[in-house]
Amino acid sequence: ARGNYLEEATHEHVNSLGLSFNQGRFQDQIFEIEPNTEKKFSKGIIFCSGGSGKGVCLDKVLNVFEWQPKRIIMTDDKLDYIQKVQKIAEARGIEFIGFRYGFLDKK
Fold first, then answer.
1. From the centroid of its chain, how far is CA 96?
2. DSSP notation for the chain
3. Per-residue model confidence as pLDDT tens digits over 10-47
């Protein structure tokens, strides 16, 4: 999860890879997912630091945009977070592909 303090750096990094989520319905959309928290949607990226709220954040963003994507692909270092997002996706009938990486497991 990336809090607000990493928002600009994240956008710069994603753009440096030739990717952009700031398009279509998400173009220039910025809002707090939960007021007075680091949970925020910014130009196609969900920032949801702190605990197990990734599934809840995703659910709220999908509700705001009244959007039912065909598929969600997620990468995270915490299996629990992947499972929580998978649960939301499956409850909505959305195909889910989750990848857990463990590079930092031994550090």
1. 13
2. ---GGGHHHHHHHHHHTT----SGGGTT-EEESSTTSSEEEETTEEEE-STTTHHHHHHHHHHHTT---SEEEEEES-HHHHHHHHHHHHHTT-EEEEEE--TTTT-
3. 999 999 999 999 999 999 999 999 888 888 999 999 98
pLDDT of res. 37 = 81
Q: Which two tokens stand for residue 21?
A: 């989520």
CA distance 41 to 19: 17
Q: Give dist(CA 89, CA 62) in Å, integer.
A: 10
Tens-digit pLDDT profile for residues 76-95: 888 988 999 999 999 999 99
- pLDDT at 62 exceeding the cut of 90: yes
Are 76 and 50 in contact by the 8 Å Cβ rule? The answer is no
Beta-bridge partner residues of 40: 32, 47
